[in-house]
UniProtKB/TrEMBL annotation, chain A:
One Pfam entry name: SBP_bac_5
Gene Ontology BP, a term: peptide transport
The protein's name in its UniProt record: Peptide/nickel transport system substrate-binding protein
Any one Gene Ontology cellular component term annotated for this protein: outer membrane-bounded periplasmic space
Source taxon at top rank: Bacteria
Principal cellular location given in the protein's record: periplasm
Source organism per UniProt: Neomesorhizobium albiziae
Source species taxonomy: Bacteria, Pseudomonadati, Pseudomonadota, Alphaproteobacteria, Hyphomicrobiales
Positions of the Solute-binding protein family domain: 69-401
Compartments, as annotated in UniProt: Periplasm
Single GO MF descriptor: peptide transmembrane transporter activity
Entries under InterPro entries matching the protein: Peptide/Ni-bd, SBP_5, SBP_5_dom
Sorted UniProt keywords: Signal
From TrEMBL, chain B:
The protein's name in its UniProt record: Peptide/nickel transport system permease protein
TM spans (from-to): 9-30, 95-119, 140-161, 173-196, 235-257, 285-307
PROSITE patterns named in the record: ABC_TM1
Record localization: Cell membrane
Gene3D superfamilies in alphabetical order: MetI-like (1.10.3720.10)
Amino acid sequence: MQMWTKILAATALALASSTGAMAARTDLVVGVVLEPPHLDPTAGAAAAIDEVLYANVFEGLTRISAQGEVLPDLAESWTVSDDGKSYTFKLHTGVKFHDGTDFTADDVKFSLDRARAEGSTNAQKGLFAAIDTVEVVDPATVKVTLKNPQGLFLYNMGVGDAVIVAPESADGNKEKPIGTGPFKFDSWAKGSSIKLSKAQGYWGDPVALEKVEFRIIPDAAASIPALLSGDVQAFPNAPVGDALAQLQSDPRLKVVIGSTEGETVLSINNKKPPFDKLEVRQAIASAIDRKAVIDAASNGLGQPIGSFMSPANPAYVDLTGTYPQDVAKAKEYLKAAGLENGFNATIKLPPPAYARLGGEVIAAQLREIGVNLEIIPVEWADWLSKVFTDKDYDLTIVSHTEPNDIDIFSRPGYYFQYENPEFNKLIEELGVTNDDAKRKEILAAAQKILAHDVPAVFLFELPKIGVWDAKLEGMWENAPIQATDLTKVKWAE
Amino acid sequence: MTAYILKRLLIGIATLVVASVVVFSMLEIVPGDPARLMLGINATDDALQALRQQMGLDQPLVWRYLEWASGLLTLDFGRSYTYSVPVIDLIAERIVVSLPLAVIALVMSTAIAIPVGVFSASRRGRPADTISMGATQFGVAVPNFWFALLLIYIFAVWLRLVPAGGFPGWSAGVWPALTALILPAVALALPQAAILARVTRSSLLEVLGEDYIRTARAKGIPYRHVLWRHALRNALIPVVTILGLQFAFLLAGTIIIENVFYLPGLGRLVFQAITQRDLIVVEGVVMLLVAAVIVVNLLVDLSYALVDPRLRANR
């Protein structure tokens, strides 16, 4: 009798495993260009950290969706007081961290207090500056009181820098990240790959993938064969270069051109003569043909912008016609500035292809109006210290990839060195406005001021070129924030 | 002999000390703030200050040098700024890729080069010599990253025999790890083999013109025996010298190949560390490479003595 049960059990097992083999795949290898320096999203600015961990391993009170909206996450719901200064979050219960400890209101208080503490090394500490107190009402309720109403507070709670960590494990997150997400961290072979696997007992919607590997492929030339050979099945931000057409013609692969929050601009040092003159900046804007720049710098895929806002944003206003390319007009502007003979200046270009290639085209275009640019290629470390911190530059090209960052033009001491009290007033107002319609109105006015003043020449929105296996579903097409959210990804059967 | 080794060791240590000063001060001059690089452009000033303090970057330069150099003596290379783990751990993780890769490539290149060199020399001026020397000319001229891409397209994309790149780690088993190293090793070995074969050939030709070779032949010793026993042994000194140089190159200079195959080796660690201004990692790896070159050179010098008994007697 016992013998029979054993045989039956063995047959059942064999059947179960053979049907398992026929079901859809549950593993995925994702290619990424940059390796994260460490794995703690609350202690570094590198996009590579969020691209592995956001939404997969770590979760916040709220989260940002594929469309860029704010959705509830660990907070199941919230109420806002009438003065807009206090938020009461109702938390999900039964949530556990991957090390087995319970997630409660205490963890929320710990995480927010840690991010804004004096010795905090949070890269976006400014996001938490408005928080006055964080109180634990009961284990499933947290009340956050702000010093003043903050328009983007719920959004800010959904970014990678604001994910919830546990006091028991926070110090080790750089090496061994412990979050509440649907995937748990398995291993990190430095320089090679980071492995995640499905977390058992996840509180939210179950995920389809069992095992995920992020493989680090820094060389653009190596990423193409990795995709073609099937070693890597998805490359959310593929450095395709000239191989785009080759990949698009391959029926096994799907190439998706999406949008990002990366406004690519020709930044101008607004305090340095002659760029302190509005006419000079207007002349530069009128001399540039955006289409030629886009063709050279982004394979023709970037969307032109006329101010500092992504075309994917609901508040976007099309201002690309503010200064259409017109060499004669540009020369008139120069004459009005008393520089009809042109002048010499420098342009410092950081390593990304959009900057190096775009810079050459812009230098050629400005030569038409007698502005001779000396091209100086710089490394990122150099760019950050010389251009960004010391403001030792005339012109530079860079993509500002943070979402909702139009306020950078109002920040004192920011490297544009742009100052317009009218603009600053708008941003101040924006900061304390919750109402969507009102926010849109203010943002439109702010965009118009920037388009007119040319604190930088607004070039194009950086495209996101995603390449993945044609049978893979649920990858993000756009990148409203820098993340590789795998929670909805699955293989078609 | 012992005095000779001792003298060489002392010179080696002095070189290391000088190198440590040069490496440390050179990297300190390079512009760029590691803290700013980690926290990005939206970081607040106090967050930057806190991080600099955590990294120990607020200490005076000389103090940091002394702390670092004294740590080296106990193999403590400090902590990486970006990864915040001990540098020695990072190096250990990478050397298990770089060292086997260098050894495999070196063995491959020697196994190809010596027979080809000997074969060419023994058929000097005949078609076989012309063809094989033409092939080595090609090997010297072809850039190894291009050759690597060619190998990837043939063996990984088209034939799908080996992975296109990456390294599964030795924990995944010896065979998967070795297959991951085969293509990069071939890409590294062939150009090296071409150089080595040319050196072997010319060195051997020189020896074959010597009187004692004619004497040996006149005594009736078979040509094959003269070639492999008498001539090759005497022709080996320049070959061993080149081998030593090649090993140092293979250990450190494989960065392009490591990038093409995205292997987590030492070269990529240094490259990454330089762009991220993780200076303490750069310093650690460079010191290690300096030490490796010194050791390899010492071994090469000692091997001269093995090859040539006259050198043994003189010292």
